[in-house]
C-alpha cells in the first residue's frame, strides 16, 4: 500500500490545490449567505470526490484481461492520462501568460447568492471538470493496478478524498468557528489566487502529469 500512497498523495495534492473549488469556497465564505451555502457546497464537493474516485476505481478494477495483460493496459492508460495532464497544464500556463485579467467567471462571483441546493449541486458538478476527471483516472488506475483487497482500496479512496478536499474543508470549518479571524485571510487568499492561481495550477498539473507518465512507463 505504501507504493500506491506515494503515487496517490501527489495526485490528491494537485486536486487540493485546484484554484476553482478554492476560489468558489472563498467567495461563498465572504458572502452574506455563507451560513446557509458553505456547508452544502462543502458536502457536494466531498461527496462528489469520493463517489467519482470510487466509480473510476471500480471501472479500472473491472478491466478485462490476465494479470500481465491488465498491468500492461493500466500502464498504457496511465501514460495517456499523464500526457493529457501535461497538455492541460501547459494550456493553462499559456492562457495565463496571454491574459492579465484577474476577474473571476460570473458564476463564481455570484455563487455566494445561491441557495443551499444549487450550492450543493455546484459542489458536485466541479468534480466533472477535465482536470478533476483526469486526476480521478490517474488515481483510480494507481489503486486498481496495485491489486489490493476491497478494504485497502476503500482506505486509499478515503485518504485521497481527505487530502484533495482539505483546502475546502479547512477554511470552511475555520470560518464557521472563527469568522472574524478568517475574513481578512480569505480576502488576501482571494486576491493572491486571482493573480497567481492559474500559474500555480499549470505548473503543478504539468509536473503531476510527468509523474503519472513515469509511473506508467515503470510499471
Task: Quickly describe the structure.
With about 220 residues, this protein is mainly α. The protein has 10 helices and no strands.
Describe the structure.
With 219 residues, the chain is mainly alpha-helical. The protein has one domain (2-218). 84% of the residues lie in helices and 0% in strands. It has 10 helices and no strands. The chain has helices at 2-16, 19-29, 34-61, 67-98, 106-109, 116-125, 130-145, 150-164, 166-177, 179-218. The longest helix is centred in the last third of the chain and has 40 residues, at 179-218. The mean pLDDT is 89.
Strand content: under 5%
User: What count of domains describes the coordinates?
Assistant: 1
Largest sheet: none
Reading the helices and strands in chain order gives HHHHHHHHHH
Rg calculated over all Cα atoms = 18 Å
- Contiguous runs where pLDDT drops below 50 for at least 5 residues: none
The helix/strand class is mainly alpha
Number of helices: 10
Summarize model confidence as the mean pLDDT. Answer: 89
Shape: globular
**Terminal-residue CA separation:** 15 Å
The tally of beta strands, per DSSP, is 0
Helix content: over 70%
